[in-house]
Amino acid sequence: MNKRIFLILFAIICIVLTMPAEAKTWYVDDDGGADFTDIQTAVNSASSGDTIYVYAGDYLGFNVNKPYITIIGEGADLVTVGPTSQIRLPDIGNATGTDLEGMKLMSDLYLSTYGPAPDCTIKNCILVNSISTAFGRYYSASNLTFEGNLVNGSGSINMYGLSSKSKILNNHFTDLSNTYSAIYFRQDANFCTFSNNVLENSTATNMLTVYNVPGCTITNNTFRNNTGVALRLYKNTVTNTTITHNIFSRNGGGIKFDSAGDNNKIYLNDFIENTAQIILLGTAPTTTIWSSPDQIPYTFNSTTYTGYMGNYWSDYTGTDNNNNGIGEDPYVVPNSLGADNYPLMQPYENYNFGGSGPVVPVAAFTASPTSGDAPLTVQFTDESTGSPTSWAWDFENDGIIDSTNQNPSFTYTSAGNYTVNLTVANAGGSDSEVKTDYIVVNEPLPEPPVADFTATPTSGDAPLTVNFTDASNGTVSSYAWDFDNDGNVDSEDENPSYTYETEGTYSVNLTVTNEDGSDSEMKTDYITVTQAGQVATNDLSISGIVNTVPASAVFARETNTVKVLNVQNTGTATLTNISIAVYASDVSSGTVPVDTTTIASLAGDAKTTVTLIDPTIRDLEGGTVTYTAVVDPDNLIAETDETNNNKSGTAKNVRYNGYKGKGIYWEGGSNITTRHTFDLQGDLLYSTQPDSAYKSVGAWGSGRTETWTASDLPVPSGSTIEEVFLYFAYNWDQTAGGYPWLNLSFNGNIIENGNLSTGNGNLYRDWSNFGAYADYEYGLCVYNVTDRFSSAGNSLVTNPYDGDNNLYGKVALYPSTLVVVYRNANETRKQIFINEECDELGLSASSYGTTLEEATTYAPFTGMAIETGKVQNATLYSFAGSAGPDEGNLLFNGNIVATGAWQGSSSTASPLVFNATNYINETGNEAGIQATTSGGMDALQQILVIEYEESAPAEPVADFTATPTSGDAPLAVNFTDTSTGSPTSWFWDFGDGANSTAQNPSHTYSAEGSYTVNLTVENAAGSDFESKSDYIEISEASGSTVTLYFDPESSSVAENESTEINLVASNFPAGFSGYNLTVAIDDPAVAEIVNIEYPSWALITQNSTLPGISIYMKTVDLEDAVKEGAADVVLATLTVSGKEKGSANLSIGVKRLEDDSGDSIEPALLTGTIEVTLLSPLPDQEYAPKDLDGDGLYEDLTGNGEFSFVDIVAYFHNMDWIEENMPVEYFDFNGNGRIDFDDVVDMFAMI
Fold this sequence. Notes:
Layout: H1 3-15, E1 25-28, H2 39-45, E2 51-54, E3 57-59, E4 70-73, E5 79-81, E6 86-89, E7 99-101, E8 104-105, E9 108-111, E10 121-123, E11 126-127, E12 133-135, E13 145-147, E14 150-153, E15 157-159, E16 167-169, E17 172-176, E18 183-185, E19 193-195, E20 198-200, E21 206-211, E22 217-219, E23 222-224, E24 229-234, E25 242-244, E26 247-249, E27 253-258, E28 264-267, E29 270-272, E30 278-281, E31 288-289, E32 296-300, E33 303-307, E34 312-313, E35 331-332, E36 339-340, E37 352-353, E38 365-368, E39 371-373, E40 376-382, E41 390-394, E42 409-412, E43 416-426, E44 429-442, E45 453-456, E46 459-461, E47 464-470, E48 478-482, E49 497-500, E50 504-514, E51 517-530, E52 540-542, E53 546-549, E54 554-555, E55 560-569, E56 575-584, E57 595-602, E58 606-614, E59 624-625, E60 627-631, E61 646-648, E62 652-655, H3 662-665, E63 673-688, E64 704-709, E65 720-733, E66 741-746, E67 749-755, E68 762-766, E69 777-784, E70 793-800, H4 805-808, E71 812-813, E72 817-823, E73 829-836, E74 839-841, E75 856-860, E76 871-881, ...
Parallel strand pairs: 1-2, 2-4, 3-5, 4-7, 5-8, 6-9, 7-10, 8-11, 9-12, 10-13, 11-14, 12-15, 13-16, 14-17, 15-18, 16-19, 17-20, 18-21, 19-22, 20-23, 21-24, 22-25, 23-26, 24-27, 25-28, 26-29, 27-30, 28-31, 29-34, 39-44, 46-51, 54-62, 83-89, 90-99, 91-100
Antiparallel strand pairs: 32-33, 32-37, 35-36, 38-40, 40-42, 41-43, 43-44, 45-47, 47-49, 48-50, 50-51, 52-55, 53-55, 55-58, 56-57, 56-60, 59-62, 60-61, 63-72, 63-73, 64-70, 65-69, 65-71, 65-72, 66-67, 66-70, 68-69, 73-81, 74-81, 75-80, 76-79, 76-81, 77-78, 77-80, 82-84, 84-87, 85-86, 85-88, 88-89, 90-92, ...
Helix pairs in contact: 5-7
Pfam family, one: PKD_4
Protein name: Probable pectate lyase C
GO molecular function, one term: calcium ion binding
């Protein structure tokens, strides 16, 4: 391409490139005539935000060791890199945000192998021959975008564990020949996306392998004409993969399950003439979902339908009698991998879809501050909904994207009103939020000038003419120079000259003035005039080192202290007004000083140490800085040797300072932020294990057990548990990869088994980031254990992952804390703020580079306003690890309220409990945790509890609504309590003999009639009754109406127990000949169908494999047992087993339902619910209670498998405990909604 034409095109492209205002473009041409002839030199010269444009040619590999460098080739067919060299992003340092485009890469690409490289892009390149890439193996490569590339050869692309949330999009892979797999998503590369790619004509054993990775999305890809397997799901942690809208055509295998995990969703794909459509190696997963999770609206043969949709199988032989594009019979997936109950009759491309895509996000944001004087730094916070996956910020609404971070900051340097535009997007679409004149930047208020000046020369023989130069800051309207400090103004010029005729030492004074005031600068003994003929014997040098304080790093996001040791006068005479300057290699390429100072006087053969400040603010870490100090930089002092005046230090890495507050001194760092709020009658309990629970690195390899007794967390009788949080803190972590690998078991339930960063808890981390312990991580992992908590006692067992203490025992464990929030109508109102984070703090100017103010982290309590006039008490629980004794200051709302406050030790994680009643504001409350010793402390969760004055409860006033209030039987009615006065119990009488104690129950009326509904509500102040006469009107079902429903409509069952639910047809006006139905449970974690019993007339039956969550059933009434007009016909009895505590919905799907004449019946379909509860053994028993006869009442209190007098005694002894800890309806034998002595009497009567 003609270079002039391409430059024009490239200039147009640059208009829309995201870069800071000062960004520069460099040009590279191996033929010469540009800025550089090789890429590496250009990279070395570039700064963060710069773009390097590479003309056509052949180039060696290169390393990128600084963030946000864009390298664009003239075209992948014109620019070749390699093949005898490497590309390293980085080699050392930080290559965050590197963008490579438009090149043919024949060199091995090492991205994040030698340092962090998140947020990188590799786009529109060609990767050929045997190139291998490894992303995220040793350092972060998260959020990588690999897009629009052409890849072929025997190499491989490997996405390792630190490349989570990366995207491989719109690439063309061909002629791949790797022996194992051409593309890998490897262990912990979670939630990656593989979309819109073509993979064809290759001989690789596997084209794409998902290896020990959950949550990936594989969509809109074409795998065709490959001799190997298209997609391999490898190992049991490959779960929750979404595989949809892909074409698997003529491959050696479609999908291979190689000991894969559960709940992988595979739907709307084409499996066309693969040698084996589906392959199984190892153990088959328990659950694989072969159809859409929800019903999808679609158009087939010009007719619109809504239904569940499976996949297209070229070997499917079923029929489509309904002509809706869905096969009548399931496609049985080979190797016991389940069935596709909704197979497509044609490739999915022949169906037009509507409404099945992801939700389009809605953009929203806030900023702080929104006004102030220039320069104004503003922090922007994304508050968009709808799960956006990308963000584009335009801070000046000029059409240029200034940031793609989710929560960026931006500095406005000029006054004005600025409109801000945020565009967010995901796979469903995009949305923009524009806030007009949102940021208001004012001109700084006028100030008096600040006087300063220089002179040259400052010494010499008389007569000596000296040129003075004004260096004042601010606007100056007049000057007054006094060259000998005798009180007389010698000049009013801005930059005068003056001749000293007489030998001596002279002080110079400059006064500058404007309309806002004046200022003077006096330099004592500044000019030295000697007698003519004297010989200079002076010599200045730097005999010590030039170093930062502390010595191991240059810190980002702040100024840096530079110490110059041993500035020496080796002459005999005393020298005065000695200037010394320090230069930074990343500021004007080290040519302009970042700070200067003056040594007033230095005697002969004396030395001194000078401290200077580099004011440069480096927003991001990464790269290096070398400081050079120069004494007498302008050679104003005559010396015998002018060549020994400078000294350079060693290169220092630019780092964030981990001993300072994360919210200020880390890019993307967070304060200790409010994560949970509660406003309730009740309270909060906590219990932290003693310091003996602390385990140092490797000393707990055989496991640590922590126990809490009932007395540690005494939940009052009659309380309802709201939430229970387990706070698991650690320190000194040296596990490879940067995250602990642990097995945590709470009350016998595994809550973590593997890498904490990808597990079930919310993980917060911090580390010093420089010095000898730069990568020794501190962390806090928070687990919600509400469903596993027992008021009778709790335990937490911690073991290294896989029992391997050598690999996974490299972490020290703080004592753990349990926090319980409960509701109790007998207690005062509380507002509870729970903030979470982990922030390592240490105070030492020399060792940590921190001041008191910097070694402070903040905990703003947000989300609720406080009614300060009604507050009775306010208590702050400030948890910190390794805090004490007599360590740390506590701040509250800007005041230091406690000094030497924490009284723990290096082995504790206990709280400081502080009465904050006198410091509370309505909003904007903020605690500060401030380190006071170099030993350091670890700020953890912060909890603020506001207690209000007790007020007399009001009696409740009963009221309710229902919908619908009329209809044909059977009619499901939803009742809604609208009572006022905070009732604590409800008793419903539905008028047909049924009742409920739920607050908002549903009930199905099965018979014609008018029903009066009564609701009784109660609290501590009294009760009230509301009756609505003839409120529900039920009509007899018309002869043509058939309803399928569950009986009972709502069921409950304990964990690992089962219950029976009937599937019933209300009536068959024209008789019945057979059905093909599907029953589904929408949450596979809660319950599953384990058995089906058909009625006696069902002589031929067929159903899918049990157990399952979506079961199809077929039968026929051969003997015409179900006659015309039959009512309440039981079609099947399902046995449902509870798996874990929770609630799930049951639904009915109809493929065929026919009357005696063979005509289709179009029934109404009602849903049902199954509630699974967690039962614990009674305090004096070994086993949990059991329901022996399936009636919903658990009469076997001892759990020994029989009902006897022993169970009555156990009930009697534990009545209060059962009422507080068990579902009352399981033990309410007299049906009055509570636990009482009459239940004991009824149990005895049962015997």
